[in-house]
């Protein structure tokens, strides 16, 4: 089992890991005292939370009043008096709001997302919920460790926010804005430096390692697949450990499926709505869906055994619809249909991940998922509570840095003009795009210069650098250069950076760093044969702007 080393900093700090899930959320933290081995702890008390323990999480739900003011959060929204007040005063419930941030490439027309409250964006709701989680964490830490300790760290807090494998720069930008609005840190360079992002797949790996879930196969250099099956997304990642070290390398492109438990719930809801459409029990469908979610779904094990949903009273009977004494009976095969599309998609993704990974390392171990032994995978599940695995793993990401190499999920490049060469067949086929540049030489429009190819293994902080030229007849045109970097993964999204200069012709390099979960950018150019980078005052910082 990995042994964490003492904190080497000179001042006490706090790191807080926040996991805002589609259905449930959690917070973990670690106090960093110089010379002391940090311990990851969970925030295990929240307002109105009935069960208190190591697995404590709260529903990702907010009630807003008619003026758009948040009135109840988390477990409070399940209290009967709150539910009745919400009905009486026409409050609006924000649930599953995380699904509103999914990239366009992940959108699913078959999945109906609950609408956001009127005049609220997903960023607004995230900000309100993150602020609530932080308030709860602050209260818990003060009550657990004392006010004096809190006073010593409240100005020295770093944060880690987890997000699905499939989220990228645009979603990270929204999360950062939400965190600023929530009051976690200031909206400047120093404030932004206090926030890091980690994918849910990598956070889950960190949790497994911290719980001692390593096997002989892993320690012999074979690979492991991590499956984090959440409420909205299922995140699948593959890694292997370098021999005789605790350094992990990603060995396949991380996957993210919109096939979490909310999809199972929606299929059950559609079945119930169709079953009781135009019948007296139609008004009981919403509470029946909730019972399916909180009880029936969790106990289903086999299609050979029927499932039951208790509702209403013993006088509720409809034999044609399998309702007896206020209890609906659903056949096992029918319940299996609610799960099967998600299960099949997950199985297909796991096998594809295994096939891609074996080009680098054979995969012998899988964590968190069952029934895969027939595919040559040893299956493991943590013995401890996993409800807060991602929040704990987010803090471990900050402390331990197990993963040193990641695999690029998409191809990045720049649309540019290149020198035309008639001897190259591709150039000749596109001869209509030839023009004469300012230097008097023929050039070819719209060529794609690749900075990084999908599937490339990228070490942390490794730079990918290409040189380009920008020219103009007007010097003022070169005072600000906007260069668009395009990422391709089935559709395009654009990332832009800006930098100033004062020459008619400028030679500059685009430098991208992909090794961490968040993309970093830099522009470097030559001025009077002096190389300037964004670390010098004369150049100013490079800024990444994600197109909405």
Describe this structure in words.
The protein has 548 residues and is of the alpha+beta class. It folds into four domains: 13-200, 2-Layer Sandwich (Nucleotidyltransferase, domain 5), CATH 3.30.420; 215-258 and 345-395, Nucleotidyltransferase, domain 5; 261-339, no CATH class; 411-546, no CATH class. 26% of the residues lie in helices and 30% in strands. It contains twelve helices and 30 strands. The strands form six sheets. Strands 10, 11, 12, 13, 17, 18, 19 and 23 form an eight-stranded mixed sheet that branches. Helix 2 crosses helix 4, helix 8 crosses helix 9 and helix 8 (261-275) packs antiparallel against helix 10 (332-357). The longest helix has 26 residues, at 332-357. Residues 369-374, 490-503 and 529-541 have low confidence and may be disordered.
For this entry, give a set of tags.
Nucleotidyltransferase, domain 5; alpha+beta; 548 residues; 6-stranded mixed β-sheet
Domain module tally: 4
Rg estimate, integer Å:
26 Å
Shape: globular
Give the CATH class of the largest domain: Alpha Beta
Give the helix tally: 12
Multimeric status of the protein: single chain
Helix content: 25-40%
Class by helix and strand content? alpha+beta
> Biggest sheet, open or closed, and with what strands and sense?
8 strands, mixed
What would CATH call the homologous superfamily of the largest domain? ATPase, nucleotide binding domain
Segments where pLDDT lies below 50 for 5+ residues?
369-374, 490-503, 529-541
CATH topology of the largest domain: Nucleotidyltransferase, domain 5
The CATH architecture term of the largest domain is 2-Layer Sandwich
Q: Tell me the β content.
A: 25-35%
Mean pLDDT: 83
Number of strands: 30
Termini gap: 44 Å
């Amino acid at each position: 089992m990995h042994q964490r080393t003492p904190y080497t900093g000179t001042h006490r700090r706090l790191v807080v890991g926040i996991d805002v899930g589609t259905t449930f959320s959690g917070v973990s933290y670690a106090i960093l005292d110089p010379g002391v081995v940090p311990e990851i702890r969970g925030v295990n008390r929240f307002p109105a939370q009935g069960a208190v323990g190591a697995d404590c999480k709260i529903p990702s739900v907010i009630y807003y009043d008619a003026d758009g003011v948040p009135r109840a959060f988390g477990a409070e929204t399940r209290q009967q008096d709150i539910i009745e007040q919400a009905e009486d005063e026409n409050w609006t419930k924000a649930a599953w709001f995380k699904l509103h941030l999914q990239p366009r490439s992940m959108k699913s027309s078959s999945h109906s997302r609950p609408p956001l409250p009127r005049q609220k964006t997903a960023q607004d709701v995230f900000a309100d919920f993150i602020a609530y989680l932080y308030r709860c964490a602050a209260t818990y830490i003060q009550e657990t460790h004392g006010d004096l300790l809190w006073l010593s760290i409240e100005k020295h807090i770093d944060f880690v926010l987890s997000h699905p494998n499939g989220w990228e720069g645009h979603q990270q930008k929204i999360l950062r804005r939400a965190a600023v609005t929530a009051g976690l840190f200031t909206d400047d360079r120093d404030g932004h430096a206090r926030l890091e992002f980690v994918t849910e797949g990598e956070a889950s790996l960190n949790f497994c390692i911290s719980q001692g879930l390593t096997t002989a196969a892993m320690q012999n250099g074979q690979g492991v697949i991590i499956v984090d099956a959440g409420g909205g997304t299922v995140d699948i990642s593959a890694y292997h450990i370098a021999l005789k070290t605790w350094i992990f390398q990603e060995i396949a492109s991380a996957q993210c499926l919109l096939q979490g438990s909310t999809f199972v719930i929606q299929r059950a809801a559609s079945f119930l709505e169709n079953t009781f459409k135009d019948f007296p029990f139609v008004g009981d469908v919403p509470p029946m869906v909730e019972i399916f979610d909180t009880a029936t779904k969790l106990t289903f094990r086999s299609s050979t055994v029927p499932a039951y949903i208790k509702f209403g009273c013993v006088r509720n009977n409809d034999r044609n619809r399998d309702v007896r004494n206020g209890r609906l009976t659903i056949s096992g095969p029918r319940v299996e249909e609610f799960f099967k599309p998600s299960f099949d998609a997950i199985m297909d993704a796991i096998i594809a991940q295994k096939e891609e990974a074996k080009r680098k390392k054979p995969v012998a171990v899988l964590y968190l998922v069952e029934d895969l032994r027939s595919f040559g995978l040893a299956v493991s599940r943590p013995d401890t509570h996993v409800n807060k695995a991602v929040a704990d793993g987010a803090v471990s990401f900050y402390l331990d840095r197990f993963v040193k190499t990641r695999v690029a999920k998409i191809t990045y490049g720049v649309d540019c003009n290149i020198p035309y060469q008639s001897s190259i067949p591709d150039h000749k086929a596109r001869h209509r795009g030839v023009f004469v540049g300012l230097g008097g030489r023929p050039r070819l429009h719209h060529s794609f210069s690749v900075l990084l190819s999908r599937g490339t293994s990228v070490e942390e902080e490794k730079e990918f650098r290409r040189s380009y030229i920008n020219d103009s007849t007007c010097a003022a045109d070169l005072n600000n250069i906007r260069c668009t970097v395009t990422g391709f993964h089935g559709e395009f999204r654009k990332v832009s950076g800006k930098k100033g200069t004062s020459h008619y012709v400028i030679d500059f390099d685009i430098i991208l760093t992909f090794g961490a979960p968040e993309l970093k950018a830099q522009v470097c150019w030559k001025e009077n044969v002096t190389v300037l980078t964004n670390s010098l005052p004369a150049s100013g910082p490079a800024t990444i702007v994600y197109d909405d």
